[in-house]
Specification:
Layout (H helix, E strand, L loop, with lengths): L9 H11 L27 E6 L18 E4 L30 H9 L5 E2 L2 E4 L6 H18 L4 E5 L2
Parallel strand pairs: 1-3, 1-4, 1-5
Antiparallel strand pairs: 2-4
Amino acid sequence: MGNAEPTINYMERTRLYYRALGYSNDYKWSHFDDAPFARLARPLAQSRIALITTSSPTDRGNKDARGVKHVWSLPVANPPDRLFTDDLAWDKESTHTNDRESFLPIAAAQALAAAGVFGGLTDHFHGVPTEYSHRKTEAEDAPALLSLLRDERAEGAILFPI
């Protein structure tokens, strides 16, 4: 144990990273006094689950004419081999996102559903933008995503952030 390096938690590491880039104000993390989460109404094995990613379609079709990203969806039955992640912050020196299953494991989720771990998947997986805007996330993206999840009768969701 004497040679082990001390761990640095994610939030502190991010603060130090932004300071090293010259930012004088620390990033303000989103937080809510009342978490918008709830227990499943039924057992997981009977629940319909939605998969959610923070990546974008490779054609970046989730942007409007102004270049603003929006919530988007694609069919689970025929997912693309790749998704666009180059505009997101992740350690590009230590890893890659060439394998979609490593950050959006649709095949693994389908296998778990087939094994009865959960009741099934929604027809679409969904993408939420990473734009670092608390206001946009709360006022636009979260309600749009909730509407899609309700339309597909999702009873739970798994978020796979990049």
